[in-house]
Each structure stands twice: as C-alpha cells, then as structure tokens.
Amino acid sequence: MDATSAFDPWSPEFTADPYPGYARLREAGRVHWFEPTRQWLVPHHADVSALLRDRRLGRTYLHRFGHEEFGRTPPPPEHQPFHRLNDLGMLDLEGADHTRIRRLVSQAFTPRTVAALAPAVTRLARELVDGLLADGGGDLMAALAEPLPVAVIAELLGVPAADRELLRPWSADICGMYELNPDQETARRAVRASEEFSAYLAGLIAERRAEPADDLISALIAACDDGERLSEEEVVATCVLLLNAGHEATVNATGNGWWALFRHPGQPAALRADPGLLPGAVEELLRYDTPLQLFERWVLDDIEIGGTVIPRGSEVALLFGSANHDPACFRDPGRLDLTRAENPHLGFGAGIHYCLGAPLARLELAASFGELLRRAPGLRPASEPRWKPGFVMRGPRELLVEV
C-alpha cells in the first residue's frame, strides 16, 4: 500500500490525531510524492531542519523566475488583493527584499518591545481567566485562547479597543488560504478580508503619520536604515503577518497544549508544584502537538533527498508535526515530558524565516498557562474537543472545560 494513504489532511479523523499516520510516512522513507496536492512530503526531522536552511528552496520563486519560466500558472486576477498583501510579508519574501524588510521590522519589533508588553499580557490573561472562573468554565478557546493574542497584537500595533473585534475574522479568513487546496469560497473570503484589512490599516497608518504614538505602527513608519524605509504597503503587510502568524499559532498552541495536559493529568500537578518548569513546558507542548503542521517551500534548484531527485519547479511540504515526533531526534517522542532537556523542536521554523514573533508567543503562552494552572487547579475537560476543519494550522474549534 502507498505510504501516502496514511496522510489524509481532509479527514476529520486524521486531523484529530495525525501522528500515527506520520509514523507510517517516516517508516516508509524520507520523501513521498502526494498527488492530491502535487507536493513532495518530507516527514523526518533532519531533512525538514536542513531544508528550512537550504537556500536552494524558497517561500517564493518570483525573485528568480517568472511564473511561466518556473512552470507555474499565475494566480487568478481576482485573487490579487490577497497575493498583493501576502507576497509583501517577510514570510513570503526571499533574497534582498526579505533581508531589507526583516532588518527594518527588527528595528521596530525589538526584544525591548516584547519585554515592555509583559505587564499588559499578564493583566489580559488575568482578566480573561477571571471571566472563565466566574462562569464556572466554558469554551477555553473562546474565553482565553482566542481573545488573548488578538488583544496583545492589537495593543502592540495600537489598534483602538473599539476596532479589535474586526481583527479575528479578518485573520481567520486570510489564513484559510494557507490550507491545502483551498476552494473558491475560501479564496473569496480571503480576498475580501485582505481588501478590508488593508484599507483599515492604511487609515490607521495615515493617522500615525500625522500624529505618532507609542505603538508598533508608528515605529514601523519611523524605521530607517541607510535611508531605506518601509513603504506603506510593506507596513500593512507586516502588520497583517504579525496578526495572522502570531495569533493563529498561539490560539492553536493554547488549545492543543491544554488538551495534551488533560490527557496527562500528572503533568499539570508537576507544573503547579514547580512553576519554574513552565518555560520548558511551553517548548514541550509546542513540540508534542504542533500548531503549524506543514510548511511549504519551492524548489529553486534540483535537490536530492534519500536518493530521490526533486527537480526545480517542485514544491515540498515540510511536515513539522511529523518532524517533532521523529524518534531519530527525540527520545520517546510520543510521551509528553515537560522536563525534556534536549528539545530542538521546529514549532517556530528555522533559518532566515525563523518566527520573528517567537518571544512574544512564548510570553503569551507562559502567561495564560501559568494563570490557569495557578488559579484553576481543578480545571478539567467537559468533553472531547471539536477540531477545526483546517489541517495546516491545526487546533480545536471548541474545548469545553469545567473548573
């Protein structure tokens, strides 16, 4: 039987637990052709880690080739609002453009910026846990996992409180395009959200140009290096990327992490007994049930994996979730071990596209897990989670809990 029969990203059963299927892929070889998406699946940690750093691959090919030259069909004209926004984000740039934009964004989004957010993150986590406790429980996703990162990103960017309810729907609709083989309705929603979010941010940028504030949008406008600045479209794309990448991953990491803890009841007790374990526990939860399961790369020059030549013009699907359960890298990978010392997980990627927001994600996760562990020692699941239909950004749609 073809090993890729174990990989069914559109199946609710596979989405609920993809890890047995990943084990079959790893056992069957280092790379597998997957006809439904016309991609090469890469399941092993060593290969995924190496390819993330290999400059023969790229998030885009447009810095070197045109669509036809690369053997690809240009996106439909009606999808242009999405691609214009997405293609200017650091995550989908390569070469000199990526270097320039990441350097300028790093001037504004500094470790000091993240550290300054710590009191606000702690306050927001406390307030949201207050609400969950007052209600005697509820949906952990809606009560804590989703609102916390949205509020933090909004505070970071300087989005007025009255407008913050707009951000989550825009983010969800845009991120639908990152799933495998998105349908036309998904694309339509993503285009509309791209247009609306871009227009909203353009208005906010105009306000900050006229009257700068102590927020990231103002800092991005002011960022300058050797006379170079970010264009307005680049500022917009950076803000959208920070929301989408930071928010979606943190939401799913929270839901996945708590579901993992609920299935290992001795682990939360160990964390409560020794809160110093929390930073390492966050890393282990990101490894154990990875929020971003798959990351794509274009092959810009021929590569070889395990004797299989993958030609220029191909696309590889790097399976982060599988890599993070590879027994060649992790001892007893199917066991949740919050004291795991060696943990080179790939939850934040690697190479030049390593997640710029990783410190902020760690801050948010430590705050929300720490607050709930401390104040809700009896927290328990009320039912099995309902999973979102998406696989690439994988997490619960609903996680009902009792306190």
Task: Describe the 3D structure.
Helix content is 50%, strand content 11%. The chain has 403 residues and is α+β, with helices and mostly antiparallel strands. It has one domain (3-402): Cytochrome P450 (Cytochrome p450, Orthogonal Bundle). It starts with 11 loop residues before the first helix and ends with a strand. The mean pLDDT is 93.
Features:
single chain; 403 residues; five-stranded mixed β-sheet; 14 strands; 11% strand; globular
Summarize the structure.
The chain is an alpha+beta fold. Helices cover 50% and strands 11% of the residues.
Question: In terms of topology, how is this protein built?
Answer:
Elements: H1 12-16, H2 19-28, E1 32-34, E2 39-42, H3 45-53, E3 57-58, H4 80-86, H5 95-108, H6 111-134, E4 137-139, H7 140-145, H8 147-157, H9 167-175, H10 184-210, H11 216-222, E5 224-225, E6 228-229, H12 232-262, H13 266-273, H14 278-288, E7 294-299, E8 303-305, E9 308-310, E10 315-319, H15 320-323, H16 358-375, E11 380-381, E12 386-387, E13 396-398, E14 400-402
Parallel strand pairs: 2-10
Antiparallel strand pairs: 1-2, 3-7, 4-14, 5-6, 7-10, 8-9, 11-14, 12-13
Helix pairs in contact: 4-10, 5-11, 6-8, 6-16, 8-12, 9-10, 9-12, 10-12, 12-14, 12-16, 14-16
